[in-house]
């Protein structure tokens, strides 16, 4: 037993050491190879999914494109690597991908034990339940004795156990390795309820054999701050990822859009806008980028609100309300520290 434990510990340590070495110069590595390797979800509408021609779309996908714009002034310098929930952290730790932008919950154990950092929350979410209307259930507290489909290797399993234990209810877990298997099992009637992040519930409902026959229950049973992840040990890359998100937030707050960013850069006298767009100060240089890095991001990808609306908001089939993902000035939690 001691030999097995020692072997496992050595293996994890070797993976983390390899990742740490890789992390020392992520930006330089990206520039040398000419693209960003972006670990992505291959099957979640609104967040990450390729179409039949291999064209990727989604909120997480657009964030990797924003990084590509910041570095290369070109949104095509990204290679999307499809990763399962089970394989995603190993792929990042080993250096297979430069960033994990894949609807991943930022938690303490992932932050401290896996050798990863989470620069910023790009979507505030929470776990919920979906059931078929014919079940006659309107609240998660009516699921006592239900069978629940969930995905292995995710935070949903622990949250599910905690919720039923806290409410003194019994349930049966029906777990699957992939998100696709999990939802197909629910849709075919192998379980009474399906649980995942609320954003995922709305996305998966679109794939149901009869979408209107399913309802999302009102309870949110957990906090799921979804964030891109990078390897620990590379402060420069961490800062680039963090401030790219904050630049998109600050641009939305300042009214800078894809349509007006060029004009704003030419004519605005607002010092905050001038700093965001790089016409004042040398804030890009501090990141190892050009001073117009945020201008590139907004022009080629958009501000946070534009990315949200076209992928998961009212301009998308999901039609998710901004809610907690609204700007702080509009009752939400999205808040960008100042660029100054």
TrEMBL record:
UniProt-listed SUPFAM superfamilies: Periplasmic binding protein-like II
One GO biological-process annotation of the entry reads: amino acid transport
What sections of the sequence does the record tag as coiled-coil?
none
Which residues does the UniProt record annotate as the domain Solute-binding protein family 3/N-terminal?
35-264
Where in the sequence is the signal peptide annotated? Answer: 1-23
Which Pfam family, any one, appears in the UniProt record?
SBP_bac_3
Q: Which UniProt keywords apply?
A: Signal, Transport
Q: Write down the PANTHER family for this protein, in alphabetical order.
A: AMINO ACID ABC TRANSPORTER PERMEASE, AMINO-ACID ABC TRANSPORTER-BINDING PROTEIN YHDW-RELATED
Protein family according to the UniProt entry = Belongs to the bacterial solute-binding protein 3 family.
Output this protein's name: Amino acid ABC transporter substrate-binding protein
């Amino acid at each position: 037993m001691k030999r097995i434990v020692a072997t496992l510990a050595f293996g994890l340590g070797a993976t983390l050491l390899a990742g740490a070495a890789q992390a020392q110069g992520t930006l330089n590595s990206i520039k040398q190879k000419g693209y960003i390797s972006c670990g992505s979800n291959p099957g979640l509408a609104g967040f990450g999914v390729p179409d039949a021609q291999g064209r990727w779309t989604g909120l997480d996908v657009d964030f990797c494109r924003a990084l590509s714009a910041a570095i290369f002034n070109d949104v095509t310098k990204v290679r999307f690597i499809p990763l399962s929930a089970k394989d995603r952290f190993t792929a990042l730790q080993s250096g297979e991908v430069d960033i994990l932008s894949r609807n991943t919950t930022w938690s303490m154990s992932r932050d401290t034990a896996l050798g990863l950092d989470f620069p910023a929350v790009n979507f505030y979410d929470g776990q919920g339940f979906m059931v078929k209307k014919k079940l006659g259930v309107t609240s998660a507290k009516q699921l006592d004795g239900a069978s629940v489909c969930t995905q292995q290797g995710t935070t949903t399993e622990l949250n599910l156990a905690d919720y039923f234990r806290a409410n003194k209810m019994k349930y049966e877990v029906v777990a699957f390795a992939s998100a696709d298997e999990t939802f197909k099992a629910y849709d075919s009637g192998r379980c009474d309820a399906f649980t995942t992040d609320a954003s995922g519930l709305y996305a998966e409902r679109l794939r149901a054999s009869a979408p209107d026959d399913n309802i999302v229950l009102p309870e949110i049973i957990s906090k799921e701050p979804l964030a891109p992840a990078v390897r620990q040990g590379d402060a420069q890359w961490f800062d680039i990822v963090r401030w790219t998100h904050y630049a998109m937030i600050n641009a939305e707050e300042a009214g800078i859009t894809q349509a007006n960013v060029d004009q704003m850069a030419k004519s605005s006298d607002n010092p905050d806008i001038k700093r965001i767009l790089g016409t004042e100060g040398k804030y890009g240089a501090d990141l190892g980028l050009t001073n117009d890095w945020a201008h590139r991001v907004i022009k080629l990808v958009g501000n946070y609100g534009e990315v949200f609306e076209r992928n998961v908001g009212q301009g998308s089939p999901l039609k998710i309300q901004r809610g907690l993902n609204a700007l702080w000035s509009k009752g939400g939690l999205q808040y960008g520290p100042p660029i100054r």
